[in-house]
Design a protein that fits this description.
With 96 residues, the protein is an alpha+beta fold. Helices cover 43% and strands 28% of the residues.
Length: 96
């Protein structure tokens, strides 16, 4: 699913004009990004949790040459699915 697909869903199901639907999707995603940049945890009830984690430096290996390379410390975004979302995926449906 793409951002355009989300815009089309809002257009079809809610009846919002596409420009307005696009603005809403952008606003939501921008707020999630901003929260993550500030180090906040973003919890979406029934869906999951986004969080920024710090990874330390480590030694990695180039798979082609097998030469060791230092991987620098960095920040990464992680996502943990909620139990409810895991249940939906396991059942293959969102209906109870």
């Amino acid at each position: 699913m793409t951002k355009a697909d989300l815009v089309n869903l809002l257009f079809e199901r809610v009846g919002l004009p596409k420009a307005e639907a696009h603005a809403i999707i952008e606003l939501v995603l921008d707020n999630i990004k901003e929260s993550l940049l500030q180090g906040e945890i973003v919890k979406v009830s029934g869906f999951g949790t986004f969080q920024v984690r710090k990874k330390g430096s480590r030694v990695g290996r180039n798979p082609r040459t097998l030469q060791e390379v230092e991987i620098t410390p960095r920040r990464v975004v992680t996502f943990k699915a909620s139990e409810q979302l895991k249940g939906y995926v396991e059942k293959g449906t969102i209906n109870p």
